[in-house]
Amino acid sequence: MLAVFKGARVPKITKRILDAITRELVKATSKMGTEVFQRSQTYVPVRTGNLRSSGIYTATNDGFEIQYLAPYAGDVEFGTSGGNVQPHVSVIKGHRRKTKTKGNVPVRAHKKTYRTGKPVYNAMSQEWSTINLTETRPPSLFLTRALREVLNQKFKVQNGLQGDIQAKI
Prior knowledge:
Elements: H1 12-43, H2 50-53, E1 55-60, E2 63-68, H3 73-78, E3 88-92, E4 95-99, E5 103-107, E6 110-114, E7 117-122, E8 127-132, H4 142-154
Antiparallel strand pairs: 1-2, 3-6, 4-5, 7-8
Helix pairs in contact: 1-4
């Protein structure tokens, strides 16, 4: 919050009051951000747990920032139109494979292209599955929903930010 009084001298008491209000607003906004993040963590869809664990909450000088760093976080939040998705390419390191007839055989490093899906490993079930990348996915809006709910709660008359702001003026 910034107050500008062009050409006027601001009394020290006014500056102290504005600074106190600004500090309390930033604290209240940061607290609200924590609530949004915690709520979004309960709404985030879980297939492997990677999206949920990629969530980060950061208090900033002027409020908060919430990020989900999984590369597909935006697709889950906002949905996909499907159809024209780039193929997924995995880089496979050189390794050894056990076969029934030849025993342990070397496999050279190579790339594998998945045209319709992306392989994902579920650490909980310890199984591989493929996510279909060509189908249209509806948005889950897990973060948007959490933000809306917290804002609606905070800006009710009886439950508003005035309860979080304890300015010492």
